[in-house]
Amino acid sequence: MAQNVPPLARLIEQFERLPGIGRKSAQRLAYHILNMTAEEAKSFAENIVFAHENIKHCKICCDLTDKEICSVCSNDSRDKSIICVVEDSKDVAAIERTHEFSGLYHVLHGVISPMNNIGPGDIKIKELIERLGDDDIKEIIMATNPTVEGEATAMYISRLIKPMGLTVSRLAYGVPVGSDLEYADEVTLSRAIEGRKEI
Fold first, then answer.
1. Scanning 95, 101, 104, 121, which has its CA 20 to 30 A from the CA of 71?
2. 2-54 maps to which CATH number?
3. Location of each CATH 1.10.8.420 domain in the chain
4. Distance (Å, whole) CA 132 – CA 128
5. Cα–Cα distance list, 71 to 67, 68, 78 (Å)
6. Digit-coded pLDDT (tens) for 153-196
7. Can you name the CATH fold of 58-198?
8. Binning pLDDT at 50, 70 and 90, where does residue 53 land?
């Protein structure tokens, strides 16, 4: 049916491009959009465009924000001596839900993955190294996902940082190997943060 209605087919195709959305889910989302009033559909589309135009990277930690500096970096009560390095912004949200970590973050926006032609220059490693000239920073927690790429990225960054005399730790393996931080529950993440080890 959707194949006979080109605008519907295009809408389904767009939803299928989203991560974790298969053909049936894309169809359900497309039909849901079509059941909205014109005003609701317009508001939905405008919010997507608004978010895309107004959300940028924090100039300090590279997390997503609508300001120059994100709410974590601008919060004076955060422990400025510890930086937790994560793959993406979803990981910051996951760790913040635990209420166990009071330091700062650095978001890499990816991991080193030669198979996908992603090298160290393609993620925010240079920006992290530039931050480490601050004398307040004492420890870097590598909180990349426990995947082959996440481990390789953590080891690569730790080798760059070690000569600077900083402590480099890794999340303890309360987080299952092969999983993503965003899907870990708060208790597992809390234990992983508390049990971190120096690399």
1. 121
2. 1.10.8.420
3. 2-54
4. 7
5. 9, 10, 10
6. 999 999 999 899 899 998 876 666 677 878 777 767 876 787 77
7. Dna Topoisomerase Vi A Subunit; Chain: A, domain 2 (3.40.1360)
8. very high
Of 73, 82, 126, nearest to 100 by C-alpha is 82
Query: DSSP letter string over 73-116?
Result: TT-TTS-TTEEEEESSHHHHHHHHHHT---SEEEE-SS--BGGG
The model's pTM:
0.79
For residue range 115-138, list pLDDT tens digits in order: 999 999 999 999 999 999 877 899
| Single-letter code of the amino acid located at 92 | V
**Helices marked H in the chain — which ranges?**
6-16, 23-35, 38-54, 89-98, 125-131, 148-161, 186-194
Closest CA to 172 of 198, 149, 147: 198
Q: What are 139's strand-pairing partners?
A: 82, 167
Task: Evaluate whether 98 touches 185 at the Cβ level (below 8 Å).
Answer: no
Q: Whats the size of the chain, residue-wise?
A: 199
Give CATH 3.40.1360.10 domain extents, the chain. 58-198
Query: Taking residues 29-47, what's their average pLDDT?
Result: 96
